[in-house]
Structure formats: C-alpha cells, structure tokens
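Exercise 3.2. Students should predict the tertiary structure of the chain below and write it as structure tokens, then compare their answer with the key that follows.

Predict this chain's 3D structure.
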Amino acid sequence: MPNDAPTVEVDINANGKPGSRWSRYGELLRQQMRSKLLRNILTVVSGTAGAQMLTMLFMPVITRLYGPESYGVLGVFMGVVMMIVPAAALSYPMAIVLPKSNTDAGAVVRLSLLIAVGMAALSAVLLYGFGAPLVAKMGVEEITPFLMLLPLTMFFGAALEIAQQWLIRHQLFRITAKVAIAHSLLHNLIRSAAGWIHASAAVLVFTTALGPLLHALMLLFGIRRGSKTGGDDDSAGKQTGVDQTLAVARRYSDFPLFRAPQMFINTVSQNLPTLVLAAYFGPAAAGYFTLCKQALSMPTHLIGKSVADVYYPKITQAIHRQEPITAMLMKAVAGLAIVGLVPFGIVFFFGPWMFALVFGSAWESAGEFARWLALAEYAIFISRPCTVAFPALSMQRLSLVFEIVSTALRIGALFIGAALLEDSLSTVIAFTFASIAIYLCLIALTAVESRRRFARGYRNA
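Answer key:
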C-alpha cells in the first residue's frame, strides 16, 4: 500500500546532482519510444494509416462514378459476406496466436484452411438450391445475380484472416503495414479503372469481392519472402499429422462452439441495418449507410484495430506469465477515447456539409446518417482492446451470451425505427443508441472479468 504521508521529490541526474523534472520526463519519453510495444503499434498504425489515406483519396472518385444505388447493392452484398465469413473457418484462425509452439500453430492454420474449403463448398450447394428464394423473402433481390460469388468471397475472407493471424502471432507487423498500403493502392485503382470503363453495381460488387483474395495473396508472398530471409520460420507451411490437427481442433473447440456463433451474431447485428434499410427504404438508403460505415470505420481500422492487433499477443503472453492485464486494457481504452474525440466530434457537428463536399451533392443525406453513426463508431473505437481480450481470456461462452443479448437490443432498435417510426434517419439513431450502450457494457464487463480471472489464476485461460 502506498504511504499517504506527504513526500518531497528530488530529481537526481546522472552525476548524482538534482536534475529538472523535465529531464526525467524526457528520459521517460525516450524509454517509451524504445519500447517494442510502442514501436509495433506505430508500425501497424503507419501502415494502416497509409492504406486508409489511399482509400479515402479514392472514395470521392468511386462515389461519383457509381452513385448511392450501386453502393446500396454493394452494401447488401458485403453485409451478407460479413455475416457468413465468421462461419468460413469456424473462428479457428483466431486461435493461431495462442499455442506456445509454432508447430501447433501450423496445425491450426491447416485445420482452418480445410474447414474453409469445406464450408465454402457447402455454402455453394445451399445457395445454388435455395439462394434465390431466400433473398427474395429477405427483400434484397438486388444481390440475386451475385449469389454464387458469395462462397468464393467467403473463402477469400477466411484465407485473409489466417494470413493476418499468422503475422500477428510472429509480430511481423512490418509486413502487415507494407502490404496494407500496397493492397489499398492496387485494389482502389482496379475499382476506379473498372468504374471508369463501365460504372454499374455489378462491376462495383465484383471488383470489391476481389479485395480479400488480393490482400491474402500479397500477405502470403510477404510471409514466404520473410521465411526465406530468416524473418520467420515456415511452420505454417510444414505438414502436420492428422492426430495433431485433431488435437488442436479439440484443444480450441471453444472457438467453433462459442466464438464462431458470437462473431456470426455480432456481424449479423452490425450488418442488419444495411439489409433493413434496403428492404424498407430502398437501395439508396442502404447506400448512404454503407458509405457512412466505410468512412467512419477508418479511425477504428487506422488506430483501434492496430492497437488491438498489437495488444492481442501481448495480452496472451501476459496471461501465460500469470500477470494482470486489467490496467493495460483500461489504459488502452482511455488513450483511444482521447484520440477519437476530435475526428468523431467533427463528423457529428459537420457531417452533412462534409459528405456533400467530399463525396458529391448526391451524398448530403448520408451526412445526416453519419453524424449519428459517428457516436456509435466512437464507442466501437474505444472498445477495440477489450474485444481481443475475450479470446485470450477464454471468455467465448460469456462472449456468446453477451452477443445474443446485444443483438436482441439492436434488432429491437431497428424494429422501432423501421416498422414503427417508418423513417430511415430514426432507424439509424435508434441503432446508434443501442450500439453505444452495448460497447460501454462490453468495456465494463472486460474490466471486471479480467480482474476476476487474474485473481483466480487464469485457470480457464
């Protein structure tokens, strides 16, 4: 316990003489800059920043080429993709970071790929037989021509996540950063050039669906190149026996049992607004929402996800060493809360004017959506470190229960806005307040559970 009696601080410099407080702060800053954790965060942030900056520069071109209705069709298609991607490998890629041995991690990679191939094939058969009637009942017939593209995009998304988690495990953040920038430039050039030749919803959907495949291939090239230069072992590429693959499948069975359903429910609740807006108010309203989510999620991907990706292996290692992680998580949350005030605050106050200026006059209504969605995205932004703590703490069961309750709250909010108030903006506002409540509860729950599980020795982690 600290002593509450008043004390007198005397700074001593290297010569044993009293030094200035500023010199001590300067030394502390230099130590922080030498910190591997901070360097990793800055590396990922710089790569993600470059990628997001390029995407932002291309967005005014793409929005003017395609228009709100094409964006609405894309939003519905990608909403469905995001719903099914968690099932692609049953969330096993998230477990790649956890094994102590690289051989076991390679077995998880192999298991994830096998499951992804099987799930993509199964979804192709189901969509061929029942896809058209299903989307008709959902009221989103706009994506009927693209149904058979869904299984391919589903597999591409799983392959991308596998590559990303392997790089996170080995903390090869430099490769992640370089590929993020190169992929953003190449992918947006493809979408823009294709739209200049023939701007249509089909072109936008097809070129966007190629994104995960292109990204995964570029990361794989980076991994292979790193292994040849000694930057990484090639455990992921080594053959592992059936027994070992089955062993890691059993060891991390909580991921398909709890994490995959939780992620599925989460993505459904996150992307349900796009489907609801398309079904009740038409593709243009869905297009407004899609653009808002894409633009507002940039700070989350730029900083929030970067911090989370770096903290995930650090949290896992701390748990292996039986060290407390609550303070680490809350410091990250507080830091993100400060960083996010300015960008999200600007959108809240000036959203309509900004969207009309940047994306064209046809998108001014999207700015009204954006000013409210900025509040929801801010809550998501500050909670990112907590989301990676759930798998590290083996909280899959609790996470699933939390997600079910959260989804029920979001569905209720959407029902109030769309079915009762019958107004698209009211639907967005209701969804926003539900999201804020959900993510604040997530932060509180993570703080309580991380402290409790440390006290009992991380027996289930």
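Discussion points: Confidence is low (pLDDT under 50) at residues 1-12, 14-18. Residues 133 and 141 are 9 Å apart (CA to CA).
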